[in-house]
Amino acid sequence: MKKRMIALLMTLLMTLLMTGSAVMTGCGGTSESESSSESAETKEESSEDAVTISLLSWNNEENMTPFIEAFEEENPGIKVDLQYVPPVQQYLDKFMVLSAADQMTDMFYTTAENKKEVFEKGLAEDISDLEIFQRIDEKVSSIYGQDGKIYAFSPDAWVGGIFYNQDLFEQAGISEVPATWDEFIDCCSKLQDIGVIPYLDDADNVNSIPQTLYQCEVISQNPEADQEINEGKATFVDYYTKPFEEWYNDMLEPGLYNQMSLGLSAEQVTDMFATGQVAMVTSGPWNLEVYREKNPDLKFDSFPLSDKDGNVVLTGALNAGLSISSTSEHKEECKKFIEFMAEDENLVKWQETSGNAIVVEGIDYELDPVLDKYKDYVVDGAFYYTQVEWKNSAGIFKEMIAAVQDVIAGADTIENVPKRLDEKNKELDE
């Protein structure tokens, strides 16, 4: 009897405990399964609440994805929708379609090729207030700006110079690279004296030397020279006569500029430099690894071409820059992304990706030894890619190449080259 009473009491106690547990759950207690369910719902809601900013990208997924993932991790409330379109023409075509349809992405890349359309149509938001521009020379930031406002952020620029074969220089008794135009001509003479081709261009770049002289002589003193031509305040005859005539009188006429250039492709000139058949070429970062792969034993370096007074303005161009669409509904989120890309750590990482020189002052990074000497030039804004500043760029550039080719072939005079450019400019304006 006693045992039965104990058993009944135990059963009653277990019932009460189970009932209490159920009551506690019903009053707000959370079971393990319910907790997991609620956590999943919270994550889903958080994802749904995130702002998505779209980016029409000039740079491919491989380059951009690491930065986007890092940004999203730091900013869990913002997602970046990368829409990569290969440059140059495909990107420009897509850009034109989106802008014409008023369907521009939240962010896009402004380039030398589309900046005119960006400015004229008011497609980009003014981002002049970003702190990063306090560390960028005005000559650089204004490349993607107008009327004192800045519409794109680009952290880097490619620059090039005269690449030279160190062994051939040594054989010719040249111990120092030329610091002026006259010293450059002297180098050419010494190289020719030992039976070496001093310098070569390919057929599509026979204007490279006089163009660089123009940058050093004219742009160094008057950065607005091309704009003056565009506005009709000056002519090509005004600004281009001297550099073309110097190239002709000092280099072409004495035979220091080899007419072989007329029959050469860019690849052929690259091969000839890599194999030691020519002492100097105009080149840039795109050929560094090409030279090394073609000839691992090649010893080469570079120097900036200068005018008679030693003025230097490198041939180069600012990379495509991030812009915020003027119609975006998420401008603040877009600014956060640009500010993220402008952080010192990310600028260094971007430089490793692009291989270009950083335009932001105070950044510690390693550039290829052949180009390292150009770091300060880039920060100071001493680089220029003239033909992208012409309002009739494509037509003028084509005419310049044709005119210089005619001069080399003896089919036209050097005095007529700038006249032909003015005539072509007038024709394209009509």
How would you characterize the overall build of this protein?
- By secondary structure, the chain is of the alpha/beta class.
- The chain has 2 domains: about 50-155 and about 320-355, D-Maltodextrin-Binding Protein, domain 2, CATH 3.40.190.10; about 160-315 and about 385-430, Periplasmic binding protein-like II (D-Maltodextrin-Binding Protein, domain 2).
- The protein is about 50% helix and about 15% strand.
- The chain has helices spanning about 1-25, 30-50, 60-75, 90-100, 115-120, 140, 165-170, 180-195, 210-220, 225-230, 235-250, 265-275, 290-295, 330-340, 345-355, 375-380, 395-410, 415-430; strands spanning about 50-55, 80-85, 105-110, 145, 150, 155-165, 195-200, 280-285, 300-305, 315-320, 320-325, 355-360, 385.
- Strands 6, 7, 8, 9, 10, 12 and 13 form a 7-stranded mixed sheet that branches. A 4-stranded mixed sheet has the order 2-1-3-11, covered by helices on one side. Strands 4-5 form a two-stranded antiparallel ribbon.
